[in-house]
Model the fold of this input.
Amino acid sequence: MGILLASEERVRPLTEGPITVATLCSHSSLQIFHGVKAEGLPTLGIARGAPPRYYQAFPLACPEEFLSVPTLAEIGTLLPRLKETHSVLVPHGSFVEYLGATEFAALDVPVFGNRNVLAWESDRRKEREWLDGAGVPMPRRYEEIDEVDGPVIVKYYGAKGGKGFVLAKNRLALKDFHPTGPYVIQEYVLGTRYYVHFFYSPLSETGYRVGSGSLELLGMDRRDEANIDELYKLGAQEEILRAGIRPTFVVTGNVPVVLRESLLPQVFDIGARIVERSLELFGGMVGPFCVEGIVTEELEFKVFEISSRIVAGTNLFPSGSAYSDMVAPRLSMGRRIALELKAAQRTGRLREVLS
Ligand code: AMP
Done:
């Protein structure tokens, strides 16, 4: 089964000569450029304003060319040069967030992976439909506050970095909750968080088979989140709230983790189901994605979120991770993207990895 994503017109210029890999200088860009350069492909950094100075400190990750725009809304002015250089855009969290999922999807430049996936990921209802349909275990969802019978987390749609989330240890604690926008009420799962970095290749003919391609596990991290991660030091919730501190989940960094090996069948099954459902719903998810979940003391992996593009946790592994080292030596997510592009170009299958 082939997934046809990109139009003939977008792909034709890329069939000969080297493809340039371009992305916004932020988020996971250093790691992407580092891996792509290691594979010998040209790189291009898109900067808001002047190219970031910290790039000078990382020569192995510095792109050969920078293009600058005052704001990302003006990215359209870069299209001629992006086309001239046969650029393919790699979406990452900041790129999509700063530009907007709809605007990103409308760009007239080839994108690595399926650009339609971004609309499914950025809408909590659509995401739920996707994950529910995939049959993956998720935290229970309450339709009404009256149904709440345990600890919950209330999430506003599109809330970035967990800002404005409300934690309540029971229904009573929600009596003063006055929503300021559309929200969902989720069971607050007690356990340990894991962020699993997958890569789905529609081209690969070996490995863990899913659809007509294969699913690779390239790394895993846990996010450091301010201020929730250290709040326990201040004692009980009521006292914290009385002190006027609201818990937030703002990601400040990442730490590497590995899972108990006996949990790997569960996470591969979850990853495979998510890919299979994406094939049915919107033509498939190609390339990097991240399954974000909590392992309970019953050793059940519950998925609370999915990121359908490269996540910043992959920045931990420019030289490979505990998992990717067993796929290929020194395999980073950036390098994996470059390898897929090269394989697609070599075999005339670019349409299956681009949109
Ligand atoms: P999200 O915006 O859904 O990625 O959530 C941000 C953070 O909130 C996560 O990284 C977790 O620390 C926490 N979180 C989200 N959902 C749950 C849940 N159902 N149970 C416990 N913690 C959660």
In short: Residues 139, 153, 155, 162, 186-189, 193, 223, 225, 249, 292, 294, 304-305 surround adenosine monophosphate (CB under 6 Å). Residues 10 and 29 are 23 Å apart (CA to CA). The longest strand covers residues 213-227.
